[in-house]
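Researcher: For the annotation table, I need structure tokens for Alanine racemase. Please keep the output clean. Sequence:
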Amino acid sequence: MAFIKLDQKKLQHNYNFLQNLFQSRTIEWGVVSKILCGNKLFINEIINLGTKEIHDSRISNLKTIKEISPDVQTVYIKPPAKRSISKIVKYADVSFNTEIDTIKMLSEEAGRQNKIHKIIIMIEMGDLREGVMGEDLIQFYGEVLSLPNIEIRGIGTNLNCLSGVMPNQDKLIQLSLYKQLIEAKFDISIPWVSGGTSVAIPLILKNARPMAVNHFRIGEALFFANDLFTGKIIEGMESEVFKLYAEIIEITEKPDIPSGELGENVAGNTFETNENHDLGSSSLRAILDIGLLDMQPQYIEPDDKNITMIDASSDMLVVDISNSENNYKIGDLISFKIRYMGALYLLNSNYIEKIVA
């Protein structure tokens, strides 16, 4: 069975790096756990780091977190669906919101559950995903203030999640100005100004974020150490918290060109020959025990640079090991670097074993 391994030491190193970064700048933060897909083994590792706040976009994952550690503050990081209101109030201490009718339902349900439900009002700032339009914010905020059993924990925004709009100092200054306008209008204090996700870390490292922006939600940087501005690894962090291992189940020298009438394969692709193909060429192919049901080949990369990915079917991945210096045998493991979306596929698969080492 193929498996994904979480490196405990690298995870701890990255958490300590981020904790020191945020503490030194008086910033609150929470771990975004949605990539873990509710896996209890890995969620336990996150809780054992010492985190007091975990964000997720799946209610079932928040339920799992509460079952493991009821004292962890859980944050639901997308606007709630009407049919999920009772579960949101039960398992999420805080939720992101953009619709007044939804917040009214949360207010009513919180009353029934004898709770105060906290919310973050999300503001649209150019990425065109969720968010209240800026010109409607003051009226929206005033309506929410009158609702019982609702505490406005703060305001926030999401960038680089849909349209690829990057956060910059101007965007965060604009978010800070919304805080000032609301506080002046309603004579209140807003605890959180949540400035975004891992994509904002380069601005924090450069001390380019406005002081009013005092909260962030971090997932990708914790697990992958990615600087999303440069595409490089954040200096001082570890990049390979996750590693994929797949076992070789066949090794055979085979022709490079299939024989017979060609149609679409299971993925809807058709093999195409071109003038560069040598009709008599062959390669040493290895078949691995992982397929499209578990991963997408474009999101994983063999650690052995001399291995070439050929193609995958639902349950098997074919690679060319002809040029490798390793003398691979049946039963050997091939390791892979994983991109964010690759890990998301793998962790969502029930057929991939999860290991901590």
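Researcher: And a one-line annotation?
Model: The first helix runs from residue 8 to 23.
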